Structures are given as C-alpha cells and as structure tokens.
Amino acid sequence: MSRDVPATGGDPVPSIPPISALRSSRATARPPVPTIRVPAARAIVDCGVYVDGNRLRGKFTHSAALAEVRARGTGFVWVGLHAPDAHQMNSVAEVFGLHELMVEDAVHAHQRPKLEVYDDVLFLVLRTVTYVEHDSISTAREIVETGEIMIFLGRDFVVTVRHGDHCGLAGVRASMDADPSRLARGPSAVMHAIADHVVDSYLAVTDLVERDVDQLEEDVFSVRQVDVDSIYLLKREIVELRKAVAPLGAPLQRLGQEASLGVPKEVRRYLRDVQDHHTIVAERVTEFDEVLSTLVEAALAKVAVQQNTDMRKISAWVAIAAVPTMIAGIYGMNFEHMPELGWSLGYPAILTVIAVVCSGLFVTFRRNDWL
After folding, report:
1. Which residues cross the membrane (predicted)?
2. Within a domain: residue 330?
3. What is the pTM of this model?
C-alpha cells in the first residue's frame, strides 16, 4: 500500500498512482464511438405513387408518397428496398405502421417462404433462385444461388424488401408501369406480379438444372469412372432448391382461396394460376431429387462392381505369381538331397514347368473373365 511521505520542512507529498491505473482511467473515460446511421433513402431503390393505375411524375420520399396517397384518398405507394439495416427498416416501418416482428424478419432475412397477417397488413416471404453458369458439373462449386423478397401489403401501400443481387424487381416494375390496367387493381396486383415473376424464375432454373441431371445420368451409365462427388453436389443444390420452392405452396394456396385476406377476386384468380405453375416446379424438383437418389445408388453399385473386378484381377495375378514364388522358395532351401539337383536339365525343366503352369492359370482366368 502506498503511503504519504513527509517532505522536509513542508506538507506531505501525495502518492502517485501507477501508470497502469492512469491508462485504465483514461480508457474508461473515453466516450463510446457513435454509430453512424445511414438514412432510409440509401436503401430505397425506387418509390412510386400510383393513382388509377398511372404513376405520378416526380420523386417522392416514402413518407411524402404515403402522405400524397392519403391526402388524395385513392391510389397506393410502392416502395422497394434492398438489404436495409435495422435503422433504415425501422424508419420505413414507422411511416407505414409495420409490426416489429415483420421488421425483424426483413432485416435478418434467411426466412422460409411464408404468409403472415398482422392486423390489416399481409407479410409474404418469397425465396428467389438463380442458376449459376458453369462449364462442367465436375468443376462447379455452386449451381443454385438463393435470395429473398419480402412483401408488406397494406390497403394503400406495398413495400418490397429484397436480399441478394440477382433478385432485382426493376423489370417487374417496368412491365407494371407499362400496363395501367393491372396497377388499377391495387397493391395486390403488385404482389401477384412479383410472385409470378419469382415462380417463372423457378421454371427457368429447373429447365437448366434438368440439363445437368441428364448429363449426370448419361455419365453414370456410360462413363467407366463415375464422379460421385458431382452427384452429391447436385443433390445438395437440389435440396437447397426444394427448400426455396416447396414451402411457397401453402401461402399461394391461401392467397388464391381465402377472400378474408382482402385480395380482390380477380387477383385471386391470377394467383391460382401462379399456384399451378408452382405445383409444376415442385413436382419437377421432387423428380430431380428422386433421380439423383437413384443415380447415387447406381454410381455406388458401379463403384462396388469395379472394385470387385479389380480385386479379381489382383487375385488372379497373385495366383499366377505364387507358382514361381513357391518353386523358387523350395529350391532356395539349402538341403543336399533334393530332387533333380544333380540333373543337368533340371534348371530348364523347372523354368518350363513354371511357364506351363503360369500360362495355364492365365488362360483359365482369362476364360473366366478374371483378366
């Protein structure tokens, strides 16, 4: 313990704290680094106001767009965001009155396709897929890449949040802007257009994946050496594709049948058509999975047969090599009284016996397809 030491002819000198304590106090005294909050506008890709199916000219913030619609008493707002953070999503949620659980899902993503209802707001999650081009299935590292689109559907607004670089909605918005009659049906028409776009992309991806499955099937039954790892890779990608596609069936069925969700009857008809296309995709994915399971079994059986053939060849050559090895081992013994040791033709006779026996074994194994 430090103590005050009196100075000569003066007041006591206070003790000096150690340097480590000074450093610690300075560290604790530093103010926390402020978190930089990026405004919501940085995450908003597009924001449009639609009245009677036509987009109003000019640029709007998400809050100004909703205020414009509610001041008019007609129309709706379509806001598109890309990978917003918590602050940006909360800013949008405050304007449109979105539930905090929906906001949490939109920020963290990695959700299964689902449909939830929060008061008068529908929350639909779609998984997007894209095909990763590759020269050969044996050199590919990824075949299917997934992303997400989340749709918040209200009476006078639709908010879309997407995660992933391949799932842009610019084409969907452009086609909708060019067809005011569809936009005149309200925000649910936008939801249908997005769902239809996503399911159509499923069909395109399954067409390309089918090409890889057919190539693997041809290789398994024609190529001598089967690359089992390629089959496992494609099967893993099919499992990922199935997880993205299959769960969407139930939400589409609800949207197409339940009038209580507030979706207009005409839009529900179009959603049932999307559901039919989704059923086709789901059946194709299931078929791919079954085919690949069969290919795995066939490839493993082919490998087992090949290993059995190799073992038979090895065993045949071992049997042939055992003959000269045995004879050489016997005559390598240092005994005096062994047959034919004193015979001048003994050595060529033994070589002849070895050649005849080995040739006989070779012919026998060859006839039995062991060699």
Report:
1. 314-333, 345-365
2. yes
3. 0.77
